From TrEMBL, chain A:
Binding site residues for GTP: 31-38
The protein's name in its UniProt record: Urease accessory protein UreG
A single GO molecular function term of this UniProt record: nickel cation binding
Span of domain CobW/HypB/UreG nucleotide-binding: 27-196
Family matches, as HAMAP family: UreG
Phylogenetic lineage: Bacteria, Bacillati, Actinomycetota, Actinomycetes, Kitasatosporales
Protein keywords: Chaperone, Cytoplasm, GTP-binding, Nickel insertion, Nucleotide-binding
Quaternary state and interactors: Homodimer. UreD, UreF and UreG form a complex that acts as a GTP-hydrolysis-dependent molecular chaperone, activating the urease apoprotein by helping to assemble the nickel containing metallocenter of UreC. The UreE protein probably delivers the nickel.
A Gene Ontology BP annotation from the UniProt entry: urea catabolic process
Gene3D superfamilies with a match to the protein in the record: P-loop containing nucleotide triphosphate hydrolases (3.40.50.300)
Organism: Actinacidiphila rubida
Protein family: Belongs to the SIMIBI class G3E GTPase family. UreG subfamily.
TrEMBL record, chain B:
Gene: ureF
Keyword Cytoplasm part of the UniProt annotation: yes
Subcellular location, record wording: Cytoplasm
An annotated GO cellular component: cytoplasm
InterPro entries noted in UniProt: UreF, UreF_sf
Protein name (database record): Urease accessory protein UreF
Top-level taxon of the source organism: Bacteria
Keyword annotations of the record: Chaperone, Cytoplasm, Nickel insertion
Organism: Actinacidiphila rubida
Primary role: Required for maturation of urease via the functional incorporation of the urease nickel metallocenter.
Gene3D superfamilies: Urease accessory protein UreF
UniProtKB/TrEMBL annotation, chain C:
Family: Belongs to the UreD family.
Subunit structure and binding partners: UreD, UreF and UreG form a complex that acts as a GTP-hydrolysis-dependent molecular chaperone, activating the urease apoprotein by helping to assemble the nickel containing metallocenter of UreC. The UreE protein probably delivers the nickel.
Pfam (any one): UreD
Keywords: Chaperone, Cytoplasm, Nickel insertion
A single cellular component GO annotation: cytoplasm
UniProt subcellular location: Cytoplasm
Cited function: Required for maturation of urease via the functional incorporation of the urease nickel metallocenter.
Protein name: Urease accessory protein UreD
Region (Disordered), start-end ranges: 1-21
UniProt gene name: ureD
Alphabetized GO MF terms: nickel cation binding
Annotated organism of origin: Actinacidiphila rubida
Length: 226, 223, 289
């Protein structure tokens, strides 16, 4: 018999509009194309996978490259990684119409069992794209030094309102003539107390503060205050 | 014309439609949609086949036919597994949005009976009923979606002038209305004569194209 | 134009022949196949009335074979043709036709109707493999094909629709294919094409200039589930997909080709692939009744 919809997990409550019950901490990773979001996701998976059950949703722009990269890197079991197609509008999929991403998160939980942490990577967009609060609990905005050291000064919702700002590729600062001190000062001024970290994730540096920040969020959520 | 209908038919209603091209991505890639004229013909073909069927299913659901029986009728009218999966996925996404917008026991029941998603037009019909809309309203929203989805996608796929795309949709307006009326009439017949009275019009290239699209390694749209 | 006049002349002859039967149909064929108790298949009912004639043809046991003969070759406006085939539990039957069915314009403005009903009992085997239906210029034909299949039966159904004889504009053709398995409708598809069909039928979502449309419906054939879903590439002249249906062990192959000649080979190839012995044969495919 062909079965289009085998009812594998009849107990799940996917249809509630707002989640409910125990669910994973959902962390959005936004930021411009190429800033190092996928590299950060990979590094976070390596740092945290022995402590918590992790799933990843990627929102690729035209390809499944991010999901495939993560699969190749084997940072997680394949059933814990899924990709959402965004119809050429990555910001719509994480902000205006989050339904496909919500489905993807629920499908992951169905395939992989209960998860503690879901990392959602945005398709890479401009500086204004942020995640809907209906989709994620907290969001990390990833920029890099090569994109210009004036990005923190220019602001924009990602830079100013994200729960954590990651400035990546500090290993390139010298080569591109980026002034890290100035970036730090500008970020602090724009963000009014929200944290900023400097990383070089592809060089294995700086992921620990990001992982620690997520651990702290997980602990808060477990304590019922997330 | 009710505001609830405008909301239900609004492309910005968060029900997942923005990531689907209604077959336009395949047709563009294979050179069958190249401009506003071929887009109009594509929309027309879709409207009078799967659009009519979907509109009749939606109208029947709004008129009070058994949604689960309609769900089976939708399966029988959708031979492509890819398009069945797409329809159910969109149905699940629409149900989520509709339950937030128009909470109702009928939507809850449908969600419980089809946790993996009921077919989208069936969900739309039940949602329309929950929103106090008529079967003709549901048919209109569904028939309009049959043309607006490829038209919107083609703006992105071909960088087609958005004014041309809007003009295509405007010119199709009377045909959309006529299809919606035919769909509603068929839905009424189905209520008295049984679901076999629902239209079953098919578009072979949409089925074949959808299967091929799903096998592409990379794509912009989910379908 | 001369083609249309020729067709009308044929219609005059046929109408003059007075083939309309008492029940108001122009032609009716009824076939019933049952096991003959000796491992073969008997045909206790084999009748053709009016425009339809049926003939038992030779075949290797244990099956029986029937050919629908020439008289059905021209449904004209207003004609009503009907074929009923019933295959009893465990019986095996193949039905073909001697020639293509050419729908022609008639004197009556009403469309012609051609209705086929196939009923398969448990473990019955039916191969319905008629020649193409051709919608000549000016014709108007409504076909319905309804197959009711019991669990465990094997149905192989081929339908080829050709729009227009060579180089002529097509008449109107509406064909609805309905399949029930164990009483549940699992397929209901209608194809409408030709002059007067709904707008867009020949556009980029419809036939896109193809003039032959084929369907292969495979029910209870284990091998069909192993077919690749995408059967051709965009560069091929024939566009085809094999789609497993929901809720039944059935697959529909849909194919579009520039003309009838290019359509048939793909359908035959696909059929052979689907009926090739599978590594895990199901009882329905076993040869002994
Ligand atoms: N030099 C350097 N390159 C990096 C670093 N992090 C990522 N990259 C490279 O930047 C490119 C884009 O990274 P990716 O994670 O795919 O960016 P995304 O588009 O934001 O997901 C890749 O070639 C990475 O190897 C870093 O810390 N330093
Ligand atoms: Mg990435």
């Amino acid at each position: 018999m062909h079965q289009d919809h085998p009812e594998v997990f009849p107990q799940r409550h996917t249809m509630s509009a707002s989640g409910g019950g125990r669910r994973a901490l959902r962390v959005g990773l936004g930021g411009p194309v190429g800033s190092g979001k996928t590299a950060t996701v990979a590094a976070l998976c390596r740092a945290l996978r022995d402590e918590v059950a992790i799933g990843v949703v990627t929102n690729d722009i035209y390809t499944r490259e991010d999901a495939d990269f993560l699969l190749r890197q084997a940072v997680l079991a394949p059933e814990r990684i899924t990709a959402v197609e965004t119809g050429a509008c990555p910001h719509t999929a994480i902000r205006d119409d989050i339904s496909a991403n919500l489905e993807a998160v629920e499908d992951l939980e169905e395939q992989a069992g209960p998860l503690d942490l879901v990392l959602l990577e945005s398709g890479g967009d401009n500086l204004t794209a942020t995640f809907s609060k209906g989709l994620v609990d907290v969001q990390i905005f990833v920029i890099d030094v090569a994109g210009g050291d004036d990005i923190p000064r220019k602001g924009g919702p990602g830079v100013t309102t994200s729960d954590l700002l990651v400035v990546n590729k500090v290993d390139l600062a010298e080569h591109v003539g980026a002034d890290l001190d100035r970036m730090a000062t500008d970020a602090a001024a724009q963000r009014g107390g929200l944290p900023t970290v400097f990383t070089s994730v592809a060089r294995g540096q700086g992921i620990e503060p990001v992982a620690a920040w997520i651990r702290e969020r997980l602990a808060r959520k477990a304590a019922g205050a997330a | 014309m009710s505001a609830a209908l405008l909301l239900l038919a609004d492309g910005r209603f968060p029900a997942g439609g923005h990531a689907h091209s209604g077959g336009a991505e395949t047709a563009v890639a294979e050179g069958r949609i190249t401009d506003a004229a071929t887009l109009a013909e594509f929309c027309r073909g879709r409207l009078h086949t799967t659009g009519l069927v979907a509109a009749a299913l939606a109208a029947a659901a709004t008129a009070g036919a058994d949604p689960l029986a309609l769900d089976g009728a939708a399966d029988a009218r959708t031979p492509s597994p890819v398009l069945r999966a797409v329809s159910r996925r969109l149905g699940r996404q629409l149900l989520r949005a509709a339950r937030a917008a128009w909470p109702s026991p009928a939507l809850d029941r449908l969600g419980a009976a089809r946790p993996r998603g009921a077919h989208q037009p069936v969900v739309l019909g039940v949602a329309a009923r929950a929103a106090g809309l008529t079967p003709l309203d549901a048919a209109r929203a569904t028939a309009y979606e049959a043309v607006s989805s490829p038209a919107t996608a083609t703006v992105r796929l071909l960088a087609l002038d958005p004014f041309e795309s809007a003009a295509v949709l405007a010119r199709l307006g009377p045909e959309v209305d006529a299809v919606a009326e035919a769909a509603e009439a068929a839905a009424r017949r189905a209520l008295s004569e049984g679901l076999d009275a629902l239209p079953a019009a098919s578009a072979p290239l949409l089925d074949i194209g959808a299967e091929r699209h799903a096998a592409w390694p990379t794509r912009l749209f989910t379908s | 134009m001369s083609g249309e006049r020729g067709a009308a002349a044929t219609g005059d002859e046929r109408t003059a022949g007075g083939v309309r039967t008492a029940s108001g149909v122009t032609g009716a064929a009824r076939i019933r196949a049952v096991p003959d108790g000796r491992g073969g298949t008997a045909l206790p009912l084999l009748t053709g009335e009016g425009a339809l004639a049926v003939r038992r043809t030779r075949t290797a046991p244990p099956g029986a074979a029937v050919t629908l003969v020439g008289a059905m070759s021209a449904p004209l406006g207003g004609d009503r043709l009907r074929v009923d085939v019933e295959v009893g539990a465990g019986a095996r039957l193949t039905v073909g036709s001697a020639a293509a069915t050419v729908a022609l314009p008639g004197r009556e403005r009403r469309p012609a109707a051609y209705d086929v009903r196939l009923t398969l009992a448990e473990d019955a085997v039916l191969h319905w493999l008629p020649e193409p239906v051709i919608a000549a210029a000016g014709s108007d034909l409504r076909m319905t094909m309804r197959a009711e299949v019991a669990p465990g039966a094997l149905l192989v159904l081929r339908e080829e629709l050709v729009l227009g004889r060579h180089g002529e504009p097509p008449g109107r053709l509406v064909s609805r294919l309905t399949l029930t398995v164990d009483g549940r409708t699992v397929l209901d598809q209608e194809l409408a094409a030709g002059r007067g069909a709904a707008p867009g039928w020949d556009g980029p979502a419809g036939l896109a200039g193809h003039r032959a449309a084929g369907q292969l419906l495979l029910v209870g054939a284990e091998g069909a589930t192993l077919l690749p879903r995408v059967l051709t590439t965009r560069a091929d002249a024939v566009q085809a997909a094999a789609t497993p249906l929901a809720g039944a062990p059935a697959t529909l192959v849909t194919a579009l080709a520039p003309d009838a000649r290019e359509l048939r080979p793909l359908l035959i190839r696909t059929l052979h692939a689907a009926l090739a012995p599978s590594p895990h044969p199901r009882p329905a495919l076993a040869t002994a009744p």
